[in-house]
Design goal:
Helix 1 runs parallel beside helix 2 and helix 2 runs antiparallel to helix 3. With about 325 residues, the chain is α+β, with helices and mostly antiparallel strands. The chain folds into 3 domains: about 45 residues, Rossmann fold; about 55 residues, 2-Layer Sandwich (Dna Ligase, domain 1), CATH 3.30.1490; about 200 residues, D-amino Acid Aminotransferase, Chain A, domain 1 (2-Layer Sandwich).
């Protein structure tokens, strides 16, 4: 046992493996490079993991390849952020180690510049968007690509964590087609094998701006277990084993509610409202088996399926109000 960021731990784990894949990008790329040199198949490759680990490199990748993204400047410390008052309002992001809403903050005024991160990062123009969507795309070793329908995400107003997901996203057909084509282009450009999640903004004038990527099965694809012909997890395995891709069709509308640790509680996890939620028609409970809870920690999720979109939202809100993780 050990940390995924520790080179020797990763090498020890993978020494008897022919194929290695990841479920979180916070992993030792130095170890992955050694495994690649040993002839093991690593998906996604270490080069893609390095790109995703650093939001600065991500943004430069979008810029270099003319992919639409919010205007940004690269900054090395708080002092450099404070020189860009004209860029406000903006989002300040850490280049590395930000995850699940951490390492991201909005700076709206000159007075707030002093709270900027004092580490290498990005200052990104705040986007006045209408919706935030995500799209899952897969590519196998033979180069076959499949794209899921975009989903719509709603975030916690303070913690930058997804609270609700709705599939399909309520967007125009033109926006859907553009988003899916961008996903195809990016996974091809990266020469990546496996699952890639791409988060995007849809602006009020119906333009798409790419926000961030994750090279793995993703929170925005959890609904696919119950709502799609092929789940993102099966699709990932098909891709890295070079099997024919599965059908990504959404067979029933779905909502997903993240189950987060309640604020004010830390310790051994206890779940309230489980039976009431399981009585909701179309509700599917997934607990992650984490023994300890803390505020806003992801402890599980609930997917709800229903052909009535209004019912989906009502049921999702009921789940949010009913199911609590305390200590």
């Amino acid at each position: 046992m050990g940390k995924l960021t520790d080179k020797e731990t990763v090498l020890s784990f993978a020494k008897d493996c022919d194929v290695v894949t990841i479920e979180i990008e916070n992993v030792s790329t130095e170890a992955l490079k050694v495994l690649e040199q040993q002839g093991k198949r690593v998906f996604p490759p270490s080069s893609v993991i390095e790109l995703i680990q650093d939001k600065r490199l991500q943004k430069k990748f979008y810029q270099t390849n003319s992919y639409p993204t919010a205007d940004f400047v690269l900054v090395n410390n708080r002092e450099e952020v404070m020189r860009h008052e004209e860029f406000l309002p903006a989002v300040n992001k850490l280049g590395k180690e930000g995850y699940d809403g951490r390492g991201v903050q909005i700076i709206e005024s000159k007075q707030a510049l002093s709270k900027a991160f004092d580490q290498p990062g990005i200052l990104e123009k705040l986007v006045d968007f209408e919706k935030e969507i995500s799209i899952i795309v897969s590519r196998n070793l033979s180069g076959e690509i499949e794209v899921y329908d975009p989903v719509e995400m709603e975030f916690h107003p303070e913690k930058n964590l997804v609270e609700y997901l709705f599939a399909p996203a309520s967007i125009s057909e033109d926006v859907k087609i553009e988003a899916q084509q961008l996903a195809r282009d990016i996974v091809y450009k990266l020469d990546m094998v496996g699952i890639l999640a791409i988060e995007m903004f849809v602006t009020k004038d119906q333009k798409i701006l790419i926000n961030e990527m994750a090279p793995r099965p993703h929170n925005s694809g959890h609904h696919s277990i119950e709502a799609c012909t092929t789940s993102q997890y099966e699709q990932h395995l098909r891709a890295i084993l070079n099997l024919p891709p599965g059908d990504p069709t959404l067979i029933i509308p779905a909502a997903m509610v993240n189950l987060l640790g309640e604020p004010g509680y830390e310790g051994e996890a206890k779940y309230q409202g489980v039976e009431e939620v399981m009585n909701i028609a179309g509700a599917h409970l997934h607990l992650y088996g984490k023994a300890l809870t803390k505020p806003y920690r992801k402890m599980g999720h609930v997917t709800i399926t229903d052909y009535d979109h209004n019912q989906l939202r009502r049921k999702a809100e009921k789940v949010k109000k009913t199911l609590k993780v305390v200590a």
